[in-house]
Amino acid sequence: MEVLAYLIPISLFLGGVGLVAFIYTVRSNQYDDPEGDARRILNKEWDDRPKP
Amino acid sequence: MTAQIRPGTAACPGCIATPGEPARPIPKDVQIALSLPGIHCSACIATVERELNACPGVDSARVNLTLKRAMVQAGPEVRAADLIPVLERAGYEAHELDPGALSATQSDKAGRDLLMRLAVAGFASMNVMLLSVSVWSGASDATRDMFHWISAAIALPAIAFSAQPFFVNAWSALRVRRLNMDVPIVLAILLALVTSLWETALSGEHAYFDAALALTFFLLAGRYLDYRTRAVARSAAEELAALEVPRAILLTNGVEEEVAVSTLRLGDLVLVRPGGRMPVDGEIVEGQSELDRSLLTGETLPVFAEPGLNVSAGEVNLTGPLTIRATAVGQDTSLHRMADLVAIAESGRSRYTSLADSAAKLYAPGVHILSALSFVGWYIYSGDVRTALNIAAAVLIITCPCALGLAVPAVTTAASGRLFRKGMLIKHATALERLAEVDTVVFDKTGTLTAGTPELTNLGDHARADLEIALALAEASAHPLSVSLARAARDAGIKPANVTEVTEVPGYGTEGQFRGQRVRLGRAGWTGAEQGTQTAAWLAVGDRAPLGFYFTDALRPGAAEAVSALRQAGKEVLLISGDTCAAVEALAGRLGITDWLAEALPQDKAARVQALAEQRRRVLMVGDGLNDTAALAAAHVSISPASALDAARVASDIVLLGQDLSPIADACDTAVRATKRIRENFRIATVYNVIAVPLAVAGLATPLIAALAMSTSSITVSLNALRLR
């Protein structure tokens, strides 16, 4: 059962990474305009260089 | 859970702001907000942003496709009126929004907060559930203890963070010595944690960390759904409020200046252009015109306006520009005084207890008593505090209202979503439940059953030559009667006669020369006719007797269908209007309404609605005008169309977004079904309790049974609610 000593921290860490990522997306307003963001990515305008 | 009592106003802060409301803080980062109902694709976003950014003075513009809005950051010299034509040239319909009224949607802090707590509870409960699964499937001794300790390490901080809303609500209820649904929830969570910690410390078999977290997660999910429904309604209602930008044209020494209504002072001179709404109460000092008072009084006949006449905020100027001197501003205007009447009517409205509240009233004490009894019983029987506490915790966890917490919000979310797609906005939390009980429907006439646009009735009575003259004169004016007359004549294939020197005389009509004769189209007194009771425009050709063009108010689309569907559903339909007897009788006849009341003052309307309520009738009031607000507030439940005055929309529980009235009958039906689902959900939750509680009291419940009972009941209840979609 020694493997648990590695696996439990690893699984908790991975889950925590997901949680932190989710909190980051909420904090940075990424759910304010889901429909618009889905369409913006189809736009070719800023394909060659980033929007200033 | 909707168990705790929320103040009614919280349902819609955006609507509380009435047209003259002064304090709307404008966010610093956005100066101009535009509503763009027509955008739908990535090309639209790109075009709109490019056009706006190309405008001089604009710093940046960003489109939000979900809300169909553009937020523009610009220098102070840029006004929305400059940007709208730019977008219209690009092919997009644009309306100015008041950014101050939108501020609440900008920073949706409460929703974000709840979502974060939900995410933490979900993350923790999944992890703990996995650890528990291995315990249930046979981990023993040191391994089990380790799993329990890890679960505790995850559960304690997670619950401390994510269950905060329950702690706060329960504490505020306990402080005033009351019980709400949150008290048993908090007690169950805390007791589960304490007994589990104790068991773990003694390397016992049963720990309820997973149950405590799953409980928090499901209940937060219910609360988040509840919040979302209300946030959607609020943001749509805010948009309606924000479309009315409170601006007025101030005249200072003959110079016109556009200012916010809130800055107007007593004695200021205000210019109101034709088509504009009076921003303040005042006295006309210059100009002649006609006034449409239908939103305030329900009268359809325009009133002649000349210097010296007093006007009230909310009246619409029809033909000529008017200069008014403000005699009452802001809170003192007649618009605001009407709010007092509403407050009186609301205090008379019987306090409605929602289904969730009545369930909580039965449930909360019952759970505590049951849990306490099983603790006492087992303590006497076994003499062991540990066993007794364990069983008391199991009883509390199993009876804990997961399913009850989801029963109401899941159904309300599904039903509100369904009604929203049909063009109805549910503003109040318990509006659906109240709508389900309705047996009497009271309609207002002007602006509600009718569209507020006149319709010519006697086109066929006139000679073609007269119609040609009338058309030529009517086309020179923007007065609603002229517009309607011109459209009807054009549709009938009439060509305008060659009338020369056409001039509009504001407040009277239009005048011209035709084959050497003076021709006039306008008010009765001006053309030499007798003023009748019906809305009419008169055509005078030379010395001939004037000819009358009669108008009725056009029916709103779906009005007839809504009335007949409501009658078919066995509801009594009444018509109460402030308009003249003849006009109301004619409309009642057209719709087949036998019970009507005309020339009703605002107090009469409210009194009639209250009288009906005293006969134990459940009244649905549908109205749009200022004269309806008191009645809207007095009724059991109320609906107003989006075209209604702000004050009326605030007073009503449901707002009809489209022109069509027919969704009303359907909404009643949906409400009845939603209430049925809520009761069904309560029954499902009770059945699960009836099965699991005896097990818990008998001391047979394991954490596995608790987890199963909780999850299955929550999922069944949510699925049952989804059937409503």
Description:
The complex is a heterodimer of chains A (52) and B (725). With 52 residues, chain A is an all-alpha fold. Chain A has one domain. Chain A contains two helices and no strands. The termini of chain A are far apart. The model of chain A has no long low-confidence stretch (mean pLDDT 83). With 725 residues, chain B is of the alpha+beta class. Among the domains of chain B are: 100 residues, 2-Layer Sandwich (Alpha-Beta Plaits); 86 residues, Calcium-transporting ATPase, cytoplasmic transduction domain A, CATH 2.70.150; 134 residues, 3-Layer(aba) Sandwich (Rossmann fold), CATH 3.40.50.1000; 103 residues, Calcium-transporting ATPase, cytoplasmic domain N. Chain B is 51% helix and 18% strand. In chain B, strand 17 and strand 18 form a beta hairpin. Chains A and B meet through helix 1 and helix 2 of A and helix 2, helix 5 and helix 6 of B.
Mean pLDDT of chain B: 81
- Strands of chain A, total number: 0
User: What percentage of residues of chain A falls in helices of 4 or more residues?
Assistant: 55-70%
Structural class of chain B: alpha+beta
Strand content of chain B: 15-25%
Number of strands of chain B: 26
Series of secondary-structure elements of chain A, N-terminal to C-terminal: HH
In short:
The complex is a heterodimer of chains A (52) and B (725). With 52 residues, chain A is an all-alpha fold. Chain A is 62% helix and 0% strand.
Q: Which helices and strands occur, and which strands form pairs?
A:
The complex is a heterodimer of chains A (52) and B (725).
Chain A: H1 3-27, H2 34-40
Chain B: H1 13-16, E1 32-35, H2 42-54, E2 58-64, E3 69-74, H3 80-89, E4 95-97, H4 103-106, H5 109-136, H6 141-162, H7 164-175, H8 182-201, H9 209-243, E5 247-252, E6 255-260, E7 269-272, E8 281-286, E9 289-292, H10 294-297, E10 303-305, E11 310-311, E12 316-317, E13 322-328, H11 334-348, H12 355-382, H13 385-399, H14 402-421, E14 424-426, H15 431-436, E15 440-443, H16 445-449, E16 450-456, H17 464-474, H18 480-491, E17 500-505, E18 509-514, E19 517-522, H19 524-527, E20 536-541, E21 547-555, H20 559-568, E22 572-576, H21 581-591, E23 595-597, H22 602-614, E24 619-622, H23 629-634, E25 637-641, H24 646-651, E26 654-656, H25 663-697, H26 703-722
Parallel strand pairs in B: 15-22, 15-24, 22-23, 24-25, 25-26
Antiparallel strand pairs in B: 1-3, 1-4, 2-3, 5-6, 5-7, 7-13, 8-11, 8-13, 9-10, 9-12, 14-26, 16-21, 17-18, 18-19, 19-20, 20-21
Helix pairs in contact in B: 5-6, 5-9, 6-8, 6-9, 7-8, 8-9, 8-13, 9-14, 9-26, 12-13, 12-25, 13-25, 14-25, 14-26, 17-18, 20-25, 25-26
